[in-house]
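User: I'm writing a short methods note and want a consistent example. For Putative MFS family arabinose efflux permease, I'll paste the sequence; you return only the structure tokens, no commentary, since I'll be parsing the reply automatically.
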Amino acid sequence: MQAQSTPRHPWWAVTAVSLATLSVVTTEMLPVGLLTPIAEALDTSTGAAGLMISLPALLAALFAPLVVISAGSVDRRSLLCGLLVLLVIANLGAAFAPTLGWMLAARVLVGLCMGGIWAIAGGLAVRLVATRSVGLATSLIFGGVAAASVLGVPLGALIGALLGWRWAFGSMALLGAAVLALHLAVMPGLPPSGTTSVRQFAQQLGNRGLQLGLLLTFLLVAGHFIAFTFVRPLLMSVSGFDARWVGLLLFGYGAAGMAGNFLAGIAAARRTRLTVSLIAAGLVLAPSLFLTIGESRLGGAMALLAWGLAYGGVSVGLMTWMMKAVPRAMEIASALYVGAFNVGIASGAWVGGQALDRLGLTANLWLTGAFAVAAGVVCLAGRRMEWTEREPDRLKRARR
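Assistant:
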């Protein structure tokens, strides 16, 4: 095994990894704000177009653990660069897709890239910077995921409104190429530092805290995407907004989401269960607002901002739960978390598409609220877990 080379520019390397997660998660979320024009251009229903979200998410869930288990002999720099090349190809394929079948073929590649990049990115901070800076570096790497989750949709909607939806995918191909060039320039060689077996995964699955964390991840993420996958028709059909307002509204959602991410990150470090419970309550409130006051433009805008504030804390809140539940096997916890998160996206988008085509948008809102209520019940079930009151040394060191 070759020794790892020392990064000449460690923080540029961290930035490159953060931009990789930003690029792949933004690509995954891009169709959410563009479903209506894509469905019209590809001559399919809005519900069927939701497969553009569920298919890559499902593949990412399958691929993330496989990367951790099977990529032990591959240099992580080479693996990341290869996945970024595939991401560029996937975005170009989507930009030029003539039919839904071609679009879904491109989205298959997105799923492979999503699972691979996210699975290996979380463990790279400790290999790129000094020990005292690992906490900050990890925050920046996962900050790419958080930013993409709340800003990727409005960004795609804005580009789509200005230039057309094909240019939204083309723009992501250009960004992916730029991130690839940055990786080639600043990322050091990253030979494997260890291996992970199927047996180790099986052992960790017996951890009750991990089990509850995975269930919470599925419930909150799936419930969110049941309705949010179709947020564009929701804003236009229920609240009565013109298409030109959707991008601006989703940027407001993204800003609220970033605020939620910051607030949840502070609170979850000390009161994880309470923080996740409040997030679940927020994801009950948001669809309730749409059902009660969402038929007006002001009410719809208020509901969307509440939605962004609540969902913005999901990623950091649940990741903190996983870190406290499995402090000594973070790579395994990260891979399983990615899997549960993306199964949630896939399931939510598929269920939402079925509900939309059969029952209409109101049913999606009711289902979103029901999933969030179930997540609140799970939080209560974990109320006696000791780690919710005692912060592990690993987290204390990371915050210093």
